[in-house]
Amino acid sequence: MGSGASGKYTGTSSQSQPYAPSYHVEPKMHQSDIDKGIYHDGKYDKNPTAKNLNEMINGNYIGNKNTNVDMPYVIDMHGNIIIGSRNGNGKNGLATPHPTLIGGKDPEVQMAGMLHIHGGKIASYDNISGHFKPNSKSMTVADEAFGKLSPRLFKKKGH
Fold it and tell me: Strand 23-24 vs strand 108-109: parallel, antiparallel, or unpaired?
């Protein structure tokens, strides 16, 4: 999952950024967001569905036992895992990519990727974000942040 040893993102010719303690939106993606109106008035709007993952914990589940979703996540500069729906819930139905989970003029994250929840349990997470393009070495940041969650919130291997 994510960028491999080559530094390329699966299915694309796009390179990850060099390893760093934090990441900003790639310039080409930023320009694309300006062109699409996702970045306007000097900032990214905040995704209206963005939440701290801790707010979605319900006992031993993320959401409930019927929650099945793949959604973007970022780890902010305070170590919080922020998640939200991806498409169509922005202004005038625009997409809400990774930077909108933070919003603002220049969103900065420690890590970004996709979170996969099956049956209310975390099945996996990765570093796939076309906007931030985090280096695969930053998966240690994700492992540390997700490692603070109860093991009961994770799908058991083999199930």
Answer: antiparallel
- Are residues 96 and 89 in contact, defined by beta-carbon separation less than 8 angstroms? yes
8 Å CB contact between 129 and 2: no
Helix, strand, coil share of the chain (percent; to 5): 25, 25, 50
Structure-block tokens of residue 43 = 């900032």
The torsion angle over the Cα atoms of residues 13, 19, 20 and 24, rounded to 10 degrees, is 0
C-alpha span between 127 and 90 (Å, rounded): 23
Q: Which residues contact 30 (CB under 8 A, 6 or more apart)?
A: 39
pLDDT digits (tens, 9 = 90+) for 33-90: 999 999 999 999 999 999 999 999 999 999 999 999 999 999 999 999 999 998 776 7
Domain ranges across the chain: 23-150
Instruction: Supply 155's token pair.
Output: 């799908």
